[in-house]
TrEMBL record:
The keyword Iron applies. It holds the Pfam family Rieske. PANTHER family: CHOLINE MONOOXYGENASE, CHLOROPLASTIC. Residues 50-158 form the Rieske domain. Keywords: 2Fe-2S, Iron, Iron-sulfur, Metal-binding, Oxidoreductase. GO terms for molecular function: 2 iron, 2 sulfur cluster binding; iron ion binding; monooxygenase activity; oxidoreductase activity, acting on paired donors, with incorporation or reduction of molecular oxygen. Residues 1-23 are annotated as: Disordered. This is (2Fe-2S)-binding protein.
Amino acid sequence: MTTTEGNPTRTRDEDAIGTPPASPTLVPAERYYSAEFAALEIDRMWPKVWQIACMVDHVAEAGDYFEYRCGPYGVLIVRGDDGVLRAFQNVCRHRGNSLCVGSGGGLRELKCGYHGWTWDLAGALKRVPNRKGFGSLKMSEFPLIPAKVDTFEGMVFVNLDLGAMPLLDYLDEIPQDIAWCNIGDFRCYATLTVEVEANWKTIADGYSETYHVQTLHPELLRCVDDIHAPQQIWTHTGKSDQPYGVPSPRFDGTLSDEEVWDAYVYTQGALMGVAEGTPMPAREPDQTVQDLIAARTRAFAAERGVDLDWADTDRITRLHQYNVFPNMTFLANADHLTIMCSRPGPDPDHGELVMFLMTRMPPGAGRNKPADVRMSAADAEPGIVLTQDIRVLPGLQRGLHQPGLTHLVLSNEELRVINMHRNLERYLELPESERMTGGDTVQDSPGHY
């Protein structure tokens, strides 16, 4: 019996539910559309949490900058002349103008385009036009307002709270659990921001459970075991393991190996460099479909100079998905990394889904600044599965408004959704009367499912 990476006490043949609770978990539906609740998130939660903002590749060289926005907040991430990565609130200390928009490079200073106040890349105020008009203005008293910034495996995180816990502590067991994969070797070639008619939590819920696979993703169901996908809950984070290249047990053994191969090629053939319709190759008697997928993935990696000989079949075909409160997930195996996050939009019924598209590169590969693309949900088609996820969101958001729907009814299979709400309640300091009900109270112990 095998065990999950970094957790020898958990077996890989456990299901996604774990121990069923005494009753479903009930979450107030208004959390997903209430303007008052969204305002509480903006006041108490968003300024206090670590959020992925960009990739190191966006700000790899001196003078590179990236503007991160989340609701009303803006953070400017800058690589200094000294090579140090810094973050500041994106605001001029004079009248509040945003200093930079978008991303770019070649900065030598940070100059407000409204009245010309200018800072160096370390945040020190250097020039104030017509300074004498301000009287006794001490330049040292008006540096840029700092924010916390840190990196994890090529990802850049920011936090507006200077007293926040270190990023590595916030990430719980993730750094140790995924260390085997060396995800820092991946490079981001593009980001895709999709404007969605849904709350940021509605978006995040979609990548926080496998319960919907059997209905929303019938093509995917033919090549993934959505049942034996054990989950782990820590504090700010959680994890799910999903075996690919095998059919869901829901088919009760009725699918042939060729049908499983065809489903994998159709839904994610690009991950191993094969086109739709590519037939299953000949194999040795003891080779499984997973072995064939792993072999083709190794060959595809070798074409771009990446050696995957260190990765066995399981490390290539088992997808490890991690959730990071409040709004992020990343999915990884030996030759795949996709990072996603959701962000609030202009009102509670709108949000953004941001995808960081990655490729594992050979040792010593250079860095390229990712292309940043924005589009509407109607125009976005980032693959069969993700497109299905995006298309369902507006209907979900409309349904949440219906007056008869007072609560979401969650299963233990939706543990990572429940954990997000548990953390949300903690940050918002909600009174008991406004918290979730039902479920199993022992879930409040981190690490227990």
